[in-house]
């Protein structure tokens, strides 16, 4: 598990390999990730947007921006957490993801970014 704390917001990431399949005559490698966002600060916050950098071992990089996480913009009071699961497809058996969440602190209405630490995606059968 990968973890990082930014401005009192702890991000924990757990990944798993889900399998391979063909799409448009190309092999794809499916990965799932579970992220827990924990508010360790003294202020209530809300997640508004996300930015992902997804890179595979063939040096292809994709940037993905969006509102919330899986259709939600969770509000986290001090001590609360939000866990969600999502996934991605890679054209190779190895890669990594990183990014950030844009959040708002309710006590001062200021926006801030929370780093999503880089985490590896790897198919177990491809390891030496």
Automatic annotation (TrEMBL):
SUPFAM superfamilies with a match to the protein in the record: ApaG-like
Domain of life of the native organism: Bacteria
Signal peptide segment: none
Name of the protein in question: ApaG protein
Domain ApaG: 3-128
């Amino acid at each position: 598990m990968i973890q990082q704390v930014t401005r009192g917001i702890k991000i924990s990431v757990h990944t798993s390999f889900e399998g391979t399949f063909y799409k448009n005559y190309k092999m794809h490698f499916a990965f799932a990730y579970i992220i827990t966002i924990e508010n360790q600060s003294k202020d209530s916050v809300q997640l508004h947007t996300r930015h992902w950098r997804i890179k595979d071992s063939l040096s292809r990089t994709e940037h993905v921006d969006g509102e919330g996480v899986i259709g939600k913009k969770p509000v986290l009071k001090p001590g609360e957490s939000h866990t969600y699961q999502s996934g991605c497809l890679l054209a190779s058996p190895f890669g990594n993801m990183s990014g950030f969440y844009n959040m708002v602190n309710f006590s001062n209405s200021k926006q801030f970014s929370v780093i999503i630490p880089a985490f590896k995606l790897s198919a177990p059968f491809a390891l030496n």
